Amino acid sequence: MRRSEAILQRPEFCFNRGVYKSMGFSDKDLEKPIIGIADTWSELVPGSYNLRAVADSVRRGIYAAGGTPVEFGVIGACDGTAQGNEGMKFILPSRDLIANDVEVMVQAHQLDGIVLLGSCDKIVPGLLMAAARLKLPAILLPGGPMQGGPVFDGRAADLTSLSEGCGMVNAGKLDPEELYRMEDTCGPGCGSCSFYGTANTMCCLSEALGLTLPQGALIPAVYAERARAAFATGEAIVELVRKNITADQILNEASMENAIRVLNATGGSTNGVLHLTAIARELGISSEKMMEKFQRLSETTPLVAKVNPSSRYNMEDFYLAGGIPQVMKEIEPLLNTEVLTVTGKTLKENLAEVSGARVNREVIKTMEEPFSAFGGIAVLFGNLASEGCVTKPSAIKENIRYFTGSARVFDCEEDAERAILAGEIQPQSVVVIRYEGPKGGPGMREMYKAMKYLYGMGLAECTALITDGRFSGTNNGCFVGHISPEAAEGGPIALIEDGDKITIDIPNKTITLHVTEEVLAERKKNWKAPEPKYKTGYLAVYSKLAASASRGAVVEI
């Protein structure tokens, strides 16, 4: 018996039937599988702006397949708007709220299946966490990426071009009026941002996990194919309910390893490490096991795809080149192909249908002739990060993958940004931004603007930036984030002083603070834990309950 059937039987549940009928549902509607559509639509987020239209197509697909759709709203905030201000402190914490929101609505109303609509940075992982937690038929459907704008600095412009341009204005390399004109054209339409940042990374990883229909991650938001994919998703979810294929049959260790492979093979966002670890936790897979997988699989996964910020090609180009199905076809020998997917078929069966007819070898290489023999993500360990930290070699030029410099220490993002724009950062500096971790921030903000300003000031190849916060998937230069333990917990990053030497050795996956253990022990004696920055509201709760970045920065009870 389906879940909805159990609470709609007569006569004891006539009240429940009356609730539905008060909204216009009929007896025939209530005989069918009741499928939720969790819609993160809003007029605040470009990646969510088209989801009303996407939801309508999903609804039609559900009806056509013999189900009854019921749509409800879910929060979703924009990382872009929150960058470089207090708003970013709320972005990562919103991920757990999204998962909780979906769980509450699905369980309170005993829905039979769920289609999860979302495209952006913390929205998609929050929805995936809910799917893993709920253990019922589920499909995630993104709204699709936006297209690129006119050429700027050698590639199609995107929204981050404005931040790079700000640094160029300060360095006297760009006319301010040109920057202001670019506001109108660098984001030519709605969709998740046109570069391979966290938003598109997580959509791609959902497809790699088997929870999104093939090609569903990358069809641009404005393409008619996006509506057809939504209709097909509506049909597919009803079939999953009929076959009782649940998300926990699709999401498991084997599919997690596939997602890690794809993350590395495509040079996705470092935030993918954080979010996959959080999703794995919902499945009962430990963070220690996940960190071991990230480290091991990155060493044996070649980088076969390069997309902005690692190349001049954007997400539309990636889609036209064959997208995630083509990437997975290229690295098929490395994948667990017997895993089940939302098509109702195994990954092996899905990949057998990939023709490779449209592959663009400038975007997607073969496993035999990759862009790089190792993956796009690296986990580093050392006396500065005993629990690990994360970087993205695919976005770092080879000449700075080994970097030693002198520390310039800042206790918040804003102070670092002011110093960069004021010209206070010299070549061979390692900019240290701390107290921005899950507890310390709170909320583990992205150091997106700081990196973009360094780029715009011409310092991207002669400086480095490390932080217990995070980075946007669009950042490049030499950067290391997620340093754990974080400063607020008394981690070694809290003990760094201006002038200390720091070495980032990506080839050997180490990060070293060149200060003796005796000196660090003496500094630790004088260190005091900071007072919580928030005494009330959700951030006060999050700062008390947030786990380390190495454990996914989830809310732990």
* CATH-defined architecture of the largest domain: 3-Layer(aba) Sandwich
Which superfamily, in CATH terms, is the homologous superfamily of the largest domain?
Response regulator
What's the total number of strands? 14
> What is the structural class?
alpha/beta
State the domain count.
3
- Estimate the helix proportion, in percent: 25-40%
Give the topology.
Elements: H1 3-6, H2 14-21, H3 27-31, E1 34-39, H4 51-64, E2 68-73, H5 79-82, H6 91-108, E3 113-117, H7 123-134, E4 138-141, E5 151-152, E6 155-156, H8 161-170, H9 176-182, H10 198-209, H11 224-243, H12 247-250, H13 253-266, H14 271-282, H15 287-299, H16 315-320, H17 323-330, H18 347-351, E7 378-382, E8 385-391, E9 402-410, H19 413-421, E10 429-433, H20 448-456, E11 464-467, E12 478-484, E13 501-505, E14 510-513, H21 517-526, H22 538-545
Parallel strand pairs: 1-2, 1-3, 3-4, 9-10, 10-11, 11-12
Antiparallel strand pairs: 5-6, 7-8, 8-12, 9-13, 13-14
Helix pairs in contact: 4-11, 6-7, 7-10, 7-14, 8-9, 8-20, 10-13, 13-14, 13-15, 14-15, 19-20
Question: Could you provide a short overview of the structure?
Answer:
By secondary structure, the chain is of the alpha/beta class. The chain has helices at residues 3-6, 14-21, 27-31, 51-64, 79-82, 91-108, 123-134, 161-170, 176-182, 198-209, 224-243, 247-250, 253-266, 271-282, 287-299, 315-320, 323-330, 347-351, 413-421, 448-456, 517-526, 538-545, and strands at 34-39, 68-73, 113-117, 138-141, 151-152, 155-156, 378-382, 385-391, 402-410, 429-433, 464-467, 478-484, 501-505, 510-513. It is globular and about 75 Å long.
